[in-house]
Specification:
single chain, alpha+beta, 27% helix, 18 strands, five-stranded antiparallel sheet, six-stranded antiparallel barrel
Length: 290
């Protein structure tokens, strides 16, 4: 193995930049940079003006649905009465007109139901996600939540700030797994075994823990600024003990090298406890060689 210095780094693909779904004003910021948060933990809350307008539209659509349902019931009652009195006090033409009114009222109920369902779907899809949810009992206040166990890297807003969907609120680094990054000399990098298992020392008060991780990347080109080649391995970090910026001793696996004669494996024979191969020694003759 090759002893090197490893740096704990957040995975580039696991950095999350959170934007709000609506527009409004920040009420409370509940986290600071460097803080570790759990999945679903509230990061900040804001008065969501867009959500307020959507709720007004839902109330309006529900009222229109109630009106349409009442009109449908009246039309159904009028049609049923006309059907019973058809040919006596109600003409066939009047019954036909009442049926057309009933059908139109039914179509209107269907349309108003669709309006309510579309708005409720918009409420669920646009304003409730892995990064945002409505505050219980306060439907016009939205909560920005963490989509995973992570570390807060930056907070870009403060209380009373106006925000919109274009505003970047919080940057999180998902720390459930991290990178161990080692910068080494090019001739050493050429000997590192790609996809090999490296071992990293994690010291603590109770002793040193040796953490295995699989090498996922071993560069071929040196950094022009440092002249070093970067080797990266991914390591699980469920308990969050590994934090970005930590420097740890690590041991990189090297390719095994040897010198000698290469022969087909199935040519090796075991005779009297010794390994031999047979080589040509003339026409139809072979000799054993150790």
């Amino acid at each position: 193995t090759l002893e090197a210095m490893g740096t704990v780094t957040a995975e580039a693909g696991r950095v999350v930049r959170i934007h709000p779904a609506g527009s409004g004003k920040v009420l409370d910021v509940l986290v600071v940079p460097g803080q570790h948060v759990k999945k679903g933990e509230v990061l900040l809350t804001y008065q969501d003006h867009s959500l307020h307008l959507l709720h007004l539209e839902i109330i309006k659509a529900q009222a229109a649905l109630t009106t349409a349902q009442a009109a449908y019931q009246n039309a159904a009652a009028a049609y049923n009465r006309g059907k019973k009195l058809e040919g006596a006090t109600v003409t066939v033409g009047e019954t036909t007109r009442r049926f057309a009114t009933l059908k139109a009222a039914k179509d209107d109920v269907t349309a108003r139901q669709a309006d309510v369902e579309v708005l409720n779907h918009q409420l669920e899809e646009d304003y409730n996600s892995v990064t945002e949810t409505n505050k219980p009992k306060e439907p016009e206040i939205s909560q920005i939540i963490s989509p995973a166990a992570a570390e807060v890297q930056s907070v870009a807003v403060g209380a009373a700030d106006d925000i919109s969907p274009a505003t970047m609120l919080v940057t999180l680094a998902d720390m459930s797994s991290v990178w161990i990054v080692s910068d080494i000399l090019p001739h050493d990098a050429a000997r590192v075994s790609e996809n090999g298992i490296q071992t990293t020392e994690l010291p603590s008060e109770t002793g040193t823990t040796f953490l295995p991780s699989k090498i996922t990347s071993a560069g071929d080109i040196a950094d022009p600024a440092t002249g070093l080649v970067r080797v990266i391995s991914r390591i699980p970090n469920p308990d969050g003990h590994l934090r970005p910026g930590m420097f740890l001793n690590t041991y990189l696996p090297l390719r095994k090298t040897t010198t000698g004669v290469i022969v087909p494996e199935n040519a090796v024979q075991d005779i009297n406890g010794a390994s031999v191969v047979f080589i040509p020694a003339g026409a139809d003759h072979f000799s054993p060689r150790a």
